[in-house]
Design a protein that fits this description.
Strand content: under 5%
Number of strands: 0
CATH superfamily: ACP-like
Helix content: 55-70%
Number of helices: 4
Number of domains: 1
CATH topology: Non-ribosomal Peptide Synthetase Peptidyl Carrier Protein, Chain A
Largest sheet: none
Order of helices and strands: HHHH
Shape: globular
Length: 81
């Protein structure tokens, strides 16, 4: 789903400006000192708005990387079909 990934990259770029798309694809909360709990909540809000969905707050601690968000969105998309 290239379009979904592009949209997700734009969401990350709005919260973490200055990163290239490749850096965004590799990012996680452990490798980025600026990614804290507030960043996670902000990122979740941006993604919820972009994808018109609601992220379960209980899942937020597990959404600690680009891949984790991408996988979550893939699961949400599959569940809506």
């Amino acid at each position: 789903m290239p379009e979904q990934e592009d949209r997700l990259i734009r969401c990350f770029a709005s919260v973490f400006p200055g990163l290239t798309p490749e850096e965004i694809r590799q990012t996680n909360s452990e490798s980025m000192g600026i990614w804290d709990s507030l960043s996670t909540v902000t990122l979740a809000a941006v993604i919820e708005e972009e994808f018109n969905l609601e992220i379960d707050p209980d899942v937020l601690p597990q959404l600690n990387s680009f891949d984790a968000f991408r996988t979550y969105l893939d699961r949400m998309s599959s569940a809506q079909r």
